Amino acid sequence: MSSHSTAELFDAVDIIATKRDRGVxxxxxxxxxxxxxxxxxxxxxxxxxxxxxxLLNGMSRPEIARWTHAMIATxxxxxxxxxxxxTSDKHSTGGVGxxxxxxxxxxxxxxxxxxxQLSGRGLGHTGGTLDKLEAIPGWRAALSNxxxxxxxxxxxxxxxxxxSGLAPADRxxxxxxxVTGTVESIPLIASSIMSKKIAEGTGALVLxxxxxxxxxxxxxxxxxxxxxxMVDLGTDAGxxxxxxxxxxxxxxxxxxxxxxEVRESVEVLAGGxxxxxxxxxxxxxxxxxxxxxxxxxxxxxxxxxxxxxxxxNRMIAAQGGDPHAPxxxxxxxxxxxxxxxxxxxxxxxxxxxxxAWRLGAGRARREDPVQAGAGVxxxxxxxxxxxxxxPLMTLHTDTPERFDRARDALTDxxxxxxxxxxxxxxxxxxxxxxx
Length: 435
Ligand code: URA
Hints:
single chain; alpha/beta; 4-stranded antiparallel sheet; 42% helix; 15% strand; globular; binds uracil
């Protein structure tokens, strides 16, 4: 069917031209273009032109809100009102080594707040939560809505694949943006994330908006604008929403790669783990619990005394996984050595993310498989003293022909300054944005 059909309310070309000329779209135009695109009436090339016009010329607050709600209206809305516990969820805009969901969901559930985490698979240099959990033997990502509700009732935490029924317009549009250079638009990112989170039906939501080389947002001002836009969208939709803006100039923790990150998450649940991962897990847990009406609980104690680990074991087992099974390891390793003595001043998140991806931890196309054991293990983080010739990183892969390309990605990844020039290491949580 053509977009010029007399049965259609608008013409896609007029809508594209309005945005191209920096005009404001009406509610009716937005409702129509999202619905018609989902039905296949607005063609891919037309939506691609509109997405580029939006990337270049932006959208007003009311336009973003309407766009978000039009995408929600293309699908189902979940309903957790039958649960006896309040619900609280977290969403990260994505980064390198970002395994926080894994310890966070069971930790929050330990305090009687249910965590419905609908997650995705990784594309490009940022890993996906489902890819990480699939490194656990037997673990299953796909649950029906009924299974998800039952697990929330019983264990209190679920991390599973988002069904195709939530905001199908976003699914289609995100795939198009991915191949047309239109991902990096604040209105389109905010509406994409929030349409899924509002449709998911969580009562409270904490956003982890990443800023730095390994994030979508490279500049703090852009991260602030994205955080503010999403907090306002959530609040207006009746979801108690806050955002933390957090550092993604360097990877989180000491691992980037699927099984490697599961292992590190289990260390955090056992009361150990790298300090930055522990700090961010605790900060986000406090926000999720406060937003769900439980501000005064001792979050760190539940990591130290094994309560969060108990919930993790139950959560993994409920989805067919064996939490005690050995994790897969890569067949080959290679080391990257420190080129000089001094203090590690910079370890670039994007470079490590690309290296992990090239080693086989991530995928280039949606249908590609990932290697469970592949990735990068770091032996030093910014601020650490390093000695020439000592290992800085270990590269893991099943396919050793990948080592050269991974090393290429790491060529300019580190800066080492002379001893005594103490490198300034900034805080992991940089700012908080609330309603
Ligand atoms: N994650 C999403 O779900 N959508 C975006 O547009 C970017 C990140």
